[in-house]
Amino acid sequence: MEQNQYIKQFPDLMKGKKILYVHGFASSGQSGTITRIREVFPQAKVIAPDLPIDPEEAVTLLRNLCAAEQPDLIIGTSMGGMYAEMLHGYHRILVNPALQMGDTMKEHGMIGAQTFSSRREDGIQEFIVTKALVKKYKDITDRCFGNLSSEEKQHVWGLFGDADTTVNTYDLFRQHYPRAIRFHGEHRMNDHSFMHSIVPVIRWIDDRQQGRERPIIYISISTLIDQWQKPQSSSQKTIRTLLENYNLFFVAPAPTDVDYYAQTNNWLYEHINVPAYGHTIFTNHKTLLYGDYLIDDEDVQGMATLIRYGTDTFKTWEHILDYFSRLGGQ
């Protein structure tokens, strides 16, 4: 995982909890992704085993590890997402999961000598992929999506990079699980995609586990869009900061036609992305919104405290950010 300016620590998120990370093909439990998870969640215990190459052995190891450790969250990337899908009974995030691993190995010419991309504890650096091994992977992925209860389906989130050219199982995942989200990113996560796409989902899961209810801020999308249909200055920065302490919802007028609905969703997907998933409200009655704050450019007298965007007090998003920073999450 590339390092850049996006990284920030969240000591209170997943505090005292266990995160099991399941790595991808030809990787290990010492990859840069593990370093990043430990850095971002310093109060969590992060477990990251080196997986055996044989898929049956890998599944056995993971199931035994889950039974012993009882992780609060499992994060699996690529091949690790395929394994994580099978670990029922736990909250899981599958990132670009290779849910048809055998086919993926054939399509990308993985047969033959391979080198691990990160150091392994056993010191092994190379391994051989045979047709027989590919067959084993194909056989084990046939077990995905088995015996899914309604409750189990609510435990799993699938995140799919919209620039992933290695694996594309979004439609397959959606056939079995309701929470499928596209994020801006490639197959391999970088710091930007991790912080702005994965961390918000981890926050939602941690809040659910803790029974935590954050103050609610409704944001009218008219306050976010400038005259060129681009994000207002500092609006994205403000949203990322507010997410740390508040539950955000994005509000738009009830659509009068399909085109308006699609345009609004497309704008939110492009510029807000994962934080808008399941947090978009279409209504012509903003006065009925029940929450703590409403950021709007109209004089809405409703049940939430109005933050009137464009006034002298809240002329810019920087002013709004400063206001909420002084509130300290209240």
What would you note in describing this structure?
The chain is of the alpha/beta class. The protein folds into two domains: 18-210, Alpha/Beta hydrolase fold, catalytic domain (Rossmann fold, 3-Layer(aba) Sandwich); 216-327, HAD superfamily/HAD-like (Rossmann fold, 3-Layer(aba) Sandwich), CATH 3.40.50.1000. The chain is 34% helix and 17% strand. It has helices at 32-40, 55-69, 79-85, 101-107, 131-141, 150-153, 170-174, 191-210, 235-242, 258-271, 317-327, and strands at residues 18-22, 45-47, 73-77, 92-95, 112-115, 126-129, 156-161, 180-183, 216-220, 247-252, 280-282, 293-296, 305-308. Helix 4 runs antiparallel to helix 5 (131-141) and helix 9 runs parallel beside helix 11.
Provide a compact summary of the structure:
This protein is an alpha/beta fold.
Quick one: overall form?
A: elongated
Average predicted confidence as pLDDT: 94
Which spans of ≥5 residues are poorly predicted at pLDDT below 50? Answer: none
CATH classification class of the largest domain: Alpha Beta
**What's the N-to-C terminus distance?**
34 Å
Count the domains.
2
Observed structural traits:
34% helix, Rossmann fold, 13 strands, 11 helices, 330 residues, 2 domains, alpha/beta
Which helices and strands, and how do they pair?
Elements: E1 18-22, H1 32-40, E2 45-47, H2 55-69, E3 73-77, H3 79-85, E4 92-95, H4 101-107, E5 112-115, E6 126-129, H5 131-141, H6 150-153, E7 156-161, H7 170-174, E8 180-183, H8 191-210, E9 216-220, H9 235-242, E10 247-252, H10 258-271, E11 280-282, E12 293-296, E13 305-308, H11 317-327
Parallel strand pairs: 1-2, 1-3, 3-4, 4-7, 7-8, 9-10, 9-12, 10-11, 12-13
Antiparallel strand pairs: 5-6
